[in-house]
Each structure stands twice: as structure tokens, then as C-alpha cells.
Amino acid sequence: MSDLISIIIPSYNQSSYMEETLSSVQNQTFKNWECLIIDDGSTDNTREVAARWTEKDSRFKYYFKKNGGVSSARNVGLNNALGDFIQFLDCDDILKKTKLEVSINAFNSNHLVTNIVLTDFKMLNQGNIVGVPYCNLKKEYFNFESVLFGWNYDFSIPIHCGLFRKEVFEKLRFSVELSAQEDWLLWVKIFRDYGDGYFLNEALVLYRKNVDGRTQSGSYIPDQMAVLKLLKKELNHQLYEKLLFVLIERYLRIIEDRTSALNGIKSTRSYQLGRKLRRAFTRIGIIKYFENLLP
């Protein structure tokens, strides 16, 4: 029997995407897998959708847990996985049909010495495949220092791009203290403890741009501050100090670039004309008149 792959799918109120996601699992050309659907306390019909799949294909398994976030849901999957390899998949994303086969073949060919095989990805927007991903993955990114210092600036890695040997997760789990950026902390630990990853430059994952998703709203700065506190426990003083300097310099450059762009706008003739008109309208009371009309 070939190696078993455990596919872990956390889900919270995403039943509208489940059919497409689970179909992409069932259609895999590599057949020796189990799929663990971890329902993170959904209040929609996730349970009913999952039941249809577990009834028609015993490789699908359903677990319900009290809502605790995506990290705790993935950890439940890891605790129950029986596979020799681990594949993560979010409930609104899709695996191309050869994702598992191509990845497992990379492990088995030429006695490849690695614990992680990664593939590229494309975006999925409103059901349409968008060719340009939000970052361009390169083989030189899949190492400890690149992930530590380049994350969220040069690139980030969707967790489902990877196929992992189970040994990676014998002791490692997702941090339940984080509501976002948990994948950065995890990748840092993986590449620190298990070496570089092997990259297949083939887009075998479709990553959905979901406007309702947790990564599409709000600022990520509070989450990044939270993950920095946890990274302090994982890094030696020299590395942590270097990381802080890299981030501070990066943010100062962003501020400088935006200030420069704003100053450039202020120096244009149209901006200057607008200011003159505003002063003129203010003197004759037009601005105040329109302000009074606003609710």
C-alpha cells in the first residue's frame, strides 16, 4: 500500500464552498488519502454537507469542536491524523487534481532528502482562476532566514502549498494564541527545525480571494505584534534583534515613501488650485452651507 496522506480541512460557517473544496479532494489522482473535516463550531449547515460526503466516501471523516479558531481546528486534525504525510486545505480553497500525486512523487524520486515539498498557487476570485498570485514564490524563499525576514514583505506561503512528512508535526502545533499570522510562526519553526523545503514550480493550489475571509479585513499589525512576542521565545537574542531592526527599517521606508508621494500630490497644480478654491468658498460661506446639509 502506498503512503497515506491526511488532508486536514478546518471549517467555520463556510458550507457554501465545501462542495467544491471536497470535490477537489475526491478527484485527486492519488487515491490513498483520508480527509479530516474539522467543524469549528459552525452555525450554518456545515454538518449536513459534511454528512453527505462521509456517507458516500468513507475516506472523509467529520469532527465537531467548540469554536476556537483555525489554529485549534487544525490541531484537532493533527491529533487525529493517521497519515504518513500531512496536507492542509482551507474550506474555501481548492487542490488541483494532481497536487497529491505530484508532491508525493517528488518525495519518492531520487531519494529526495526533505521534510516539505511545496508547489506554487494561483488565485481564485469569484469562481474564476486569476493567473497572477498575490506573491511570486521562488525556490530561494524556502529556508529559515528568508521566511523569518521576508514574510509579508517579499512573500508569504499559503499553508496548503506544502505537503509535509508526519514527523514535522510529532511535537509541533499551531499557536492558539494567534487569530492570524499563525502560519508565519509555524513556517519559522518548520524551516528552523527541519531544514529547507523542496519547491515544485507548478501551480497546484487555488487560493480563494474571499472578501468575507479572516485575512481580508482589518489591519494585520496587531496580529504581527502578537506573533513578534511569541517569536521572541523561539529566537536567540541576536536573531530577534536583527528581525526587529529589519521590520523597523521596512516600516520607516514605507512611511517615507508614502510621505514623499503625498508631498508630490500637494505640489501639483490641481491640488494647489483645489486649496485656493476651498479657501475662497470658505470665505463666502459655501463650505459651511454644504456641511450643514450633511447628516
UniProtKB/TrEMBL annotation:
Residues 6-172 form the Glycosyltransferase 2-like domain. The keyword Transferase applies. InterPro entries: Glyco_trans_2-like, Nucleotide-diphossugar_trans. CDD domains: Glyco_tranf_GTA_type. The keyword Transferase applies. GO terms for molecular function: hexosyltransferase activity. This is Glycosyltransferase family 2 protein. It comes from Nonlabens ponticola.
